Amino acid sequence: MCGIVGIVGRGPVNQALYDALTVLQHRGQDAAGIVTSDERNLSLRKDNGLVSDVFHTRHMLKLTGRMGIGHVRYPTAGSSASAEAQPFYVNMPYGITLAHNGNLTNAEQLKHEVFRDDLRHVNTESDSEILLNVFAHELWSQGKHKLSEKELFAAVRGVHERCRGAYAVVTMITGFGILAFRDPYGIRPLVYGERDNDAGKEYIIASESVAIQALGFRLIADVEPGEAVLITTEGKVYKQQCAKNPQRSPCIFEYVYFARPDSIIDGISVYKARMRMGEMLADKIKRDFAGEHIDVVIPIPDTSRTAALELAHALNLAYREGFVKNRYIGRTFIMPGQRQRKKSVRQKLNAIDLEFKGKNVLLVDDSIVRGTTSQQIIQMAREAGAHRVFFASAAPPVMYPNVYGIDMPSVEELIGHARDEAQIATAIGADRLVYQALPDLIESCRRGNPAIERFDASCFDGKYITGDITPEYLKRLQLLRNDDNKEASRSGDNEVIDLHNTR
Length: 503
Hints:
24% strand
């Protein structure tokens, strides 16, 4: 999972790109990058770390120009070295930079095609670099020396024909403009907006609407599944549907966990969707927990707060903040390696004993993935004096790997795989456990936009909407994603790179 942004402004955009990435920091804490264009020249800065760690004053001063794109990244099933940080760049044609959120499910095939047929070299293990080279080749194949929106949209059509999986993309063509496009299923989110400037309109494209609003832009719309949106340096906006059979199927885990609650994705308020998750879960607790006495509802901060508050209200129970969060520790779900993940939980959360002592507590979390975090939190509640500890998940059991850009672990590491609720409750140390039902989760989201007929819920039901996922693919993915096989290689500081005369 990553965050992307692109801005076409009327003045320098370096600070706006930085600010947007800080708003999107929750989508990736492993690496960050910005590339800007001042007509013919590009300036690039990217490295491992948080946005505030990667960009210092000396870097910002060199990121000149009124057009640029940015990226925040979290560890995926490959190296976490700075070579994997985005945006990526190719010189031919025109000088193109690209930032990508998602995962190409046919990346291995494409890598061979790009080398054998397109005569292009891919220098990293990132499927984003493969995507960039596919797009660059499709654009070069148009054979035009003078670029227009027609050639760009034709190139996107070529990408859709060749690439499989999930991809939300911002790409910058030096001296011409920024092009954004989304895979034909719209799995990963992408929105765009505008704001008025004394010199004319400025435009932004981002993973989530919160980045648009935080910078004072007005939300225009989602980039539709399969659609491409082009914003030229002159501020002209073109858009075109480039997929043959687009089918809106957004990832439901965005609403459960990844997106900020103040975002709107595909017409659905994330905040309201989580409120409805709490209502639905309360109804299930009324049915399944008959006879159980609960004294207090306590959320696992931060993502579950909205659902937990609504759940407590629906059950007419006290809602209390029982854990204090250290906000300088990253999100444990997206940390590389089980050892670091286990260590971080105790550093991240501290229990307020008086909210637990002698009580039957219902802990509410957004989801349970490996179960190690849940297990430690339940143990903390018991150490704080809880009499009984019940646990509720606002999402169904995570039983299958996600192949569309969320680096969930291998099947053998998913606590929800091949276990029932009673077995999982025993494994995490809860007195009782309740999961959201998948139909209720889907209804919680769909009620915000009834036009959406299908969500990608593959991590819950094992149904991969792109139709190209085989047992062999999942086996290869399992080898990559096993915690024992993940080594986070860190590199030193990289200065801003000047990419001159790229046209």
